[in-house]
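In this section we walk through a basic example: taking a raw amino acid sequence and producing a predicted 3D structure, encoded as discrete structure tokens. The instruction is simple. Fold the sequence below.
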Amino acid sequence: MQLGRIKIRYSVSLAYSVIYIAFLAVSIGLLSVYPTISSRDSVFSAKQNALTSQVTVMSVSLAALEQLSAEGVEQVMNLLDVGEYDRVLVTDSAGLVLYDTETRGSLLGQSCAFPQVLDALVWGNISCRFRYDTLAFSSEAAAPVMSYGSVIGSVYLHERDTDQADMIRSLQGRLRSISLIAGAVTLLLTVLFSRYLTRRLRTLVDGMRIVREGDYDYRVPVKGADEVSDLSEAFNEMTGRLQSTDELRRRFVSDASHELRTPLASIRLLSDSVVQSDRMDPDTMREFVTDIGTEAERLQRLTEKLMRLTRMDSKLPVSRSPVQLKAVAERAVHLLRPLAEQKNVTVRAELDESAVIYAAEDDLLQIVFNLTENAIKYNSRGGSVTLRLTREGDRAVLRVEDTGIGIPAEDLPHIFERFYRVDKARSREAGGSGLGLSIVHDAVLRHNGTIRAERRDPAGSRFTVSFPLYAGETGGGEE
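The resulting token sequence is shown next.
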């Protein structure tokens, strides 16, 4: 660890748990508080309606006296049902208490300074006040007594309700208990789920480390149908591709080393023979030097093919333009005419001059040249090679047919693989490296084409190459 820098590792499980616990705590808090507040407000609203209604009834009943006195007020109040309230108090217009149900600490005959009473006497308003202290609801209401538009007194009611308070307190306790139980269960499930989730992620991370160290055979177990499963499947698919690529790379390096070793070994053996021989006649030396040159040319051809494959694998841009495929095929046939005469093979061409494609001309020449060269090299003496170029729908189709020994059915799926040879002994004798068809295959795919190999009846092989025709809209340049 560097001085002054501290790297803190955050666990996904811990972070997930902390976030969920915080959310759970807020939810439980709201669940505990909101129902209580809502119930309290409902009780306040109901009591306000009840007290307002009751105090209004008392005020109207007292207004019939026109002049308030202790005796008259008491007679009216005895007719009304005031026993359900903890305190009922009536004053005159000056605030002097004329009636008070409170026996202990009674204000009878004294001035009353309750805010609600003063508000009723001074402003003629009906006012209410409520308090809740978890033990009881305390409700107060006061209303003016009006006679001919004048305030002649006031009525004051006070109620202390413990039943409603007990009910809300009981509800609050139940909610708290339920919240705690639900919180504990949810917390337990959260911890278990977060561990399960992080365990799957940890398995995926461990798999990445294993693959990073070169074990491409490793696969992460896929469970479920969620995003982690999709990620695991994608990882396994990527690992499979890496494994295939690594196997191809190893085989390519092995085959390339083997192919390069053969001409190098021949050159070394021949050169050692020349150096170590003191009495070699000029004809034998010339033969050895010629063989060294032949092997050097073979080595050069192999190196050029490997470099060409490397350029194709790197997907470097190529310069493309409209190309008449007939002209390219005729050029390839012209270049291979000496080889055909040497092998006593007849080459025929049936080419449609209207087949124009958008491609790199050098790549097309390489494709036609390699296919035609193979058809001549691996043909029988006195045989024939036929090139047919036609337009089929929106595609240009080139078929190269020969009358040779053909390709065995078990070899057809592999002939486009690098360094693959159908007849290894005959291929080496003919100077083949097993790279020509691989180069053709990659070049065809690079130009959005298709290639297919098949046996002919009664003998020979047929290679069919198809390219999209040039439509005229695409401009020249690099792609």
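Looking at the output, two observations stand out. The CA atoms of residues 25 and 183 lie 8 Å apart. The two ends are 48 Å apart (CA to CA). In the next section we compare this with other chains.
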